[in-house]
Fold this sequence. Notes:
This protein is α+β, with helices and mostly antiparallel strands. The chain has helices spanning 41-44, 55-65, 101-113; strands spanning 10-16, 21-26, 30-33. It has a domain at 7-48: Rhinovirus 14, subunit 4.
Amino acid sequence: MKPDIHxxxxxxxxxxxxxxxxxxxxxKPAIKVEVCSACHPLYTGKQKMLDTAGRVxxxxxxxxxxxxxxxxxxxxxxxxxxxxxKHARKVLSSAPKAKTAKTVKAEAKAKAEKKPExxxx
Length: 121
């Protein structure tokens, strides 16, 4: 380290507004703080939850009503016999539609019904 460029590292006394004081090391000889580990609500267990609009009470009421168990939802019923739901989107395409077994049978039946005509010359 280069000499005379770093601050002095001295024993420092930290004082809180609650009256708690402890000794540590720092570049400052005295430090004053507003909150320390002796008076901070997180460390002391005196932390209060801010509840706006009664959300905590509402949750506790629902939780007690279920007996602490989670709610299991029933599975949705699926209709049988329907090919696609009504809300399904139609795909717009210029490609020819694929032939299904039903359309193939209908075309075969139409060809069988059509009788070939003899051309009279």
